[in-house]
Amino acid sequence: MNRILATLFLSVLAVAVSAQSQTPAVPGTMPYGKVDVADLELKACEFEKDANAEVLFDKGDLYFDQQFNIIVQRHKRIKIFNENGMKEAEIRIPYQGGNRLEYITGLQAQTINLVNGKPEIIKLDKSQIFTKNIDKVRNEIAFTFPNVKAGSIIEYKYAWNTVSYSNFPAWFFQQKIPVRYSEYITSVPEYFTYRTQVRTYEPFVKNTSKTEAQVGYMSDKNERAMANIHSLPDEAYMSSYADNYQCLIFQLTNITSHQAGIFKTYSDTWAKVGGILADDEDFGKQLKKKLKGEEVILANAAKLKGDDKIAYIFNEVKNTMKWDGVDRWYTTEGTPTAWEKKTGNSAEINIILYHLLKQAGLDVYPMVVSTREHGKVRPYHTSLSQFNRAVVYMPVSEDKEYVLDATGKYNVFNEIPAELLNSSGLYIDKGKELYDIVSLEKLTPSSQTVFVTAQIKPDGKLEGTTNIRSSSYNRLNAIERYKTDGEKKYIDYLRNDDNGIKIASLKFENLDVDTLPLLHTINFTADLSGSDDTYIYLNPNLFSSLRKNPFLAENRLTDIEFGYNRNFSIGGRYTMPAGFKVDAMPKSGKIVMPDKSISMSRIVGEQDGVISIRYVVEFSSPIYLKKDYPDFREFVKVLYEMLNEQIILKKA
């Protein structure tokens, strides 16, 4: 009997061992300085073969010290696979050092190379660690790892410290390069309650919680980890990395001590945040500060009315001030100094704009917003950290409002800057004690109309004129591209880099008139590809913004965000050469997405030797969710096939 039980036990054990051997081990962390030779010999990321570098592990261990300061012990290790991955050896650690709110201690860094089959460690000389004061609030530690080459492992560790309970740092599991293992451990005293936003779509490989006894209180310990996290690619029409990284976000909601009879809520309202801004020395206290020589601008503005007055003051500030490229909701040197220097950050420029508009008698309010790169404002998360720019808010009527931003060289007063759309702004009216969140949207579609009038030559050439009419953001995008890149590159863009198209002349109308559509007139010739003595092939989708399908990838990790609704109209009249007839022509018809958010109609006909076409494409939603991408991609594929279907002429 014992022999049977022993045999049965061994059989079960063998099955268990076999099952364990077939389950891939979850990666983890290692002590600083201890490295696995297999990692030094690693040639590629196992789950993302074309990666230039890989985070082997990234560990954060957060706890509170005896004074209830928050400390995060950070340890990060990276593998460099090739020369393109060596940029990962340049490290920047930002922190808010103003008033010593945050500070960094215990920084160590080293490079590990494989030399004669053994690890060789090269420590970073502390003299090569540089601290930079970005402004009176923000600082940065910068350094570059020594002796880095393809195959190197680099690692660093430090302690991030903050004296603020509410400054609980987020954790980003996903990065711009793949991450083999990422772990965040948080140990929070029982007195503090934080709301946790879990923004992940892949499972945790570790997700545990328990209560631990500390000296005088209990602590809630949570451990969360993810493994084999793909890098976040730069996908066409994605909103930002900040909106899409898999991460954890924390917000302090209350502090409670039953023993001491303390209960304090930190569930701030937007009114409370707005009140803080209104009284801030570097924001609200700057609004009324007088500017040197402002009387001249105000005198000129007094001669104007309505939009003309707004446009004049807006353009005076935009053309006078140079943006230093820094986005802040607060000023650094103050508006009078920035005005005299004619340069400033986004808050300084736009508070100057607010001041002049207000002094001119206009109903305007300061507003804080978040740029697309910084990430969307989440209205349920009442935190000032969500904002990174100040602008001017001007309600005109119940269905019309202006959001003015004079930092952008190509911004106009009557269009919300595209990088602020589909988010929210917080406006401040201290006089009425109104502080409210406003959705920033563009409901009227941005449009582009292309019309071609051309002669088809019997030798397979096309000669004619194209008129393009662009409004709203299409107008702004065209002007910025033209003025930034220059005429030659802009012509290449219009040709879609097609060497068969030659543009003889390009003329603009309304290039400097903000309130009118931009008009192009293009004289051109084109070689019709594939044509011969018998057949002529014509694709009438010329000079439009819808020539190449940007959604060819089978999978997508981020939502599609166009920013605004878009309408396109492509028309044309093509005179056929004598002796040719239509051999094949696209059929007229219409396709519509099931949710009716995208539609395309196509009308094609021929009469008396003239081919007429009219394509109309309408995108009536600015955002398409990644979960709907397969259906979106399939529909757009058909749409582009219809757009680029050829007309075939045959010699009679």
UniProtKB/TrEMBL annotation:
<feature type="domain" description="DUF3857">
    <location>
        <begin position="73"/>
        <end position="205"/>
    </location>
</feature>
<feature type="signal peptide">
    <location>
        <begin position="1"/>
        <end position="21"/>
    </location>
</feature>
<dbReference type="InterPro" id="IPR024618">
    <property type="entry name" value="DUF3857"/>
</dbReference>
<protein>
    <submittedName>
        <fullName>Uncharacterized protein DUF3857</fullName>
    </submittedName>
</protein>
<keyword id="KW-0732">Signal</keyword>
<dbReference type="Pfam" id="PF12969">
    <property type="entry name" value="DUF3857"/>
</dbReference>
